[in-house]
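Summary of Year 1 activities. Much of the first year was spent building the evaluation harness for sequence design. The harness presents a backbone, in tokenized form, and records the residue chosen at every position. We chose the following record to illustrate the format because it has been used consistently in internal testing since the harness was completed.
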């Protein structure tokens, strides 16, 4: 039986699995990995309307007639793409850990 088959079985005891130290460790590692990215994203996301609404910092021209507001806004798209790429690469490692946890705790 492969890990993919075991993962799809409805007879898997998920409540037992989530109580294992391996699973709790995986959840903690995922949370520790994602938290700084989430904090940075929300900070960058909410700073844009604050800067545009209450200051004139971003109103100066950056490139031709384009102001820094547009540069900042477009950089948000780049940031999301970069964060997504980083997470997708890290998720591959998390998937390997999940397979090991399932193999150790379910496929005994």
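For this record, the design step produced the sequence shown next.
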């Amino acid at each position: 039986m492969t890990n993919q088959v075991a993962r799809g079985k409805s007879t898997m005891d998920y409540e037992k699995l989530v109580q294992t130290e391996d699973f709790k460790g995986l959840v903690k590692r995922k949370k520790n990995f994602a938290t700084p990215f989430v904090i940075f994203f929300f900070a960058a996301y909410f700073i844009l309307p604050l800067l545009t609404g209450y200051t004139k910092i971003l109103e100066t021209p950056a490139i031709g007639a384009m102001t820094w507001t547009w540069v900042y806004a477009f950089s948000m798209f780049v940031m999301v793409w970069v964060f997504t790429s980083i997470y997708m690469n890290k998720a591959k490692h998390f998937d390997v850990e999940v397979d090991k946890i399932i193999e150790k705790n379910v496929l005994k």
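The first strand starts at residue 61 and ends at 63. Quantitative recovery figures across the full test set are reported in Table 2.
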